Amino acid sequence: MSKRNLIASAVIGAFALGSSQVVSADPLKTLQQEEAKIHKAAAQSQEKINRIYEQTQELLAEYRQVVDETENLKVYNDHVAGLVADQEDAIASLQRQIDNIEGVKRGVVPLMYRMIDSLEKFIDLDLPINLDERNARVAKLRDLMSRSDVTTSEQFRQVLEAYLVELEYGTRIRAYQGELSYNGQQISADFFNLGRTALLALSLDQKNAWVWNNDARAWEELGDEYIGSVTKAVKMAKKLVPSDLVKLPIKAAE
Q1: N or C: which end of the chain has fewer CB within 10 A?
Q2: Residues contacting 177, CB < 8 A, separation 6+
Q3: Please, what is the average pLDDT of the chain?
């Protein structure tokens, strides 16, 4: 019995030892598993950190770009603000001019009527150079002033243009055909004017010549000694012959 008890005790001790080794092996394995989990979690955390870092760099680059664009926009906005201010000044100036238009028109319209009246009187007192054409121009101006579809500026422009045409009559040498009223007869003739210095007429058959006497407001017949010169002067004005000296009846300056 004592020997059997001894064997049983030995078996129980062996089991106890084996059990102790199993129990001591389980914490090591658990520790290794936990360590693996930690490494895995650390790797995942590093990946998250890397992603966050990359996102941070991207956001930083975007931020810098936004800052640069903001500075550019600020400069551009300042530029546009200056342009807007200048345009506002121009608009204000135009508005002031528009507000004054009616006042200007009230002064210009009577002035144009006076200018047309003066032009008509001047033509009546002047040498009758292209008289029909000039009277027609005055009549056209009077008709223009009564038309509502023509702006005041256009009316004024045409009045000034008529004055410029009148100015040219005094500075040009011209020849043209027309009708001459002499001793109750209408005679077709070539007219020649040396500016406003002299106005002469030559019958189409070149047998008679006349000079305008502005004091008498009438035509005076010239002697035969002037017919050749007047004929040559007409041809010179029509550019049929070269320019040359000619003898013409010119009234002396007073």
Answers
A1: C
A2: 188, 189, 190, 191, 204
A3: 86
